[in-house]
Design goal:
heterodimer; A: 165 residues; alpha/beta; Beta Polymerase, domain 2; five-stranded mixed beta sheet; two-stranded parallel sheet; 4 helices; 28% strand; elongated; B: 186 residues; Rossmann fold; two-stranded antiparallel sheet; 7 helices; globular
Chain lengths: 165, 186
């Protein structure tokens, strides 16, 4: 008993529920994708969980420096029973961006949100323990933002003489 | 083993310099202690990546680090003489490595194995320590990515040379205190 509900029906359900707050609905290969307004992101996820998406596969930060809304979060949800997946995106232009935490709905969001904080500097309002998770605590800056220099700034041997730049 | 090989081995057995007669040898304490220390180095392997795999080969029967008196690996820093750092050290790992070094009792030596431990190697990135000599003093560097077991053995032999020729007073000298101070240790 798989796929008793068509992904199209699912997206339709979402648009009926949230109307103009759903900014964009599309299909990427066989995954339904919805871009939702920043202010309803938590409501959308709560709604989807009630619909049976009981597993938060992943949530990640995004940084698109040329876009109008530079910062985004992307959530992957999985419904095991119906074998459905859905991807929810939301964007904001604030810096630092604030997002509502999902830790009260999905405990798995705890570390993933810490990761997004660690690498992008996103603030998750209501997160119980928002601190760096992978990088050292004393680090400054947000390394996965595009303006962050990738190479170690403490290297003194990589100069024009040796590398021709 | 042929007789010729045996002779070669015998030639390599080192002799202490000193005044020698039947049944006795008079030499300096430095030399006697140096000889004892160099042939009983207890290594502490700090293996974080592929160089650690090469070290396993070095330690195993084919290359056999035990031939050099390093039979016994010390997994406690407190009983180790030689810290072998093998692999990429992330910046977050830095304080751990430093603490391990600080826990080792004097005299202690550090062997930095491979490009990553020596200079950060190919990982010129914000999260990787660009050479362990930024946080602890290093005695011998072994190049390679990863180095072959023969190279690691060569590095250990270089350490043995340092151990053998080290003055007993070195660790109490003001130069040594200055070196430690430059790393902020003690």
């Amino acid at each position: 008993m798989f796929n008793t509900i068509e992904p199209e029906a699912l997206l339709e359900q979402l648009t009926t529920q949230f109307a103009e707050k759903i900014l964009l609905v599309e299909k990427h290969y066989d995954v339904s994708v919805a871009e939702v307004s920043h202010d309803v992101i938590k409501n959308v996820i709560v709604f989807l969980k009630e619909q049976g998406f009981q597993f938060l596969t992943s949530c990640n930060g995004l940084h698109l420096p040329t876009a109008e809304k530079k910062f985004g979060m992307i959530y992957h949800l999985h419904d095991f029973k119906r074998n459905l997946r859905i991807r929810i995106k939301t964007f904001t232009q604030n810096d630092p961006p604030h997002f509502p935490t999902l830790t009260d709905i999905f405990p798995a969001a705890n570390w993933m949100e810490r990761e997004a904080y660690d690498f992008f500097g996103f603030r998750f309002d209501g997160h119980p323990n928002l601190r760096r998770i992978l990088n050292e605590d004393s680090m400054e800056g947000w390394p996965l933002r595009k303006e962050y220099p990738l190479e170690d700034q403490a290297r003194f041997d990589k100069d024009d003489r040796m590398f021709g730049r | 083993m042929s007789e010729k090989n045996l002779t070669n081995i015998n030639q390599k057995v080192e002799r202490l310099e000193g005044y020698e007669g039947p049944g006795f040898l008079a030499t300096t304490l430095d030399k006697a202690v140096g000889l004892a220390r160099k042939n009983s180095l207890w290594p502490l392997p700090f293996a974080t990546s592929c160089c650690g795999i090469e070290f396993m080969a070095t330690m195993a029967s084919h290359y056999d680090l035990a031939r050099f008196g390093s039979e016994r690996l010390s997994f406690s820093p407190r009983q180790a003489d030689m810290l072998m750092v093998m692999g990429t050290i992330a910046k977050k790992m830095g304080p751990v490595l430093r603490q391990v070094y600080e826990q080792m009792a004097e005299p202690k030596w550090v062997l930095s194995v491979g490009a990553c431990a020596s200079s950060g190697g190919i990982f010129d990135t914000y999260s990787v320590l660009q050479g362990i000599d930024r946080i602890i003093p290093v005695d011998v560097y072994v190049p390679g990515c990863p180095p072959r077991p023969e190279q690691i053995l060569e590095g250990v032999m270089k350490i043995q040379e340092l151990v053998h020729n080290e003055s007993l007073r070195r660790r109490n000298s003001p130069e040594y205190a200055e070196l430690m101070a430059s790393y902020g240790i003690k």
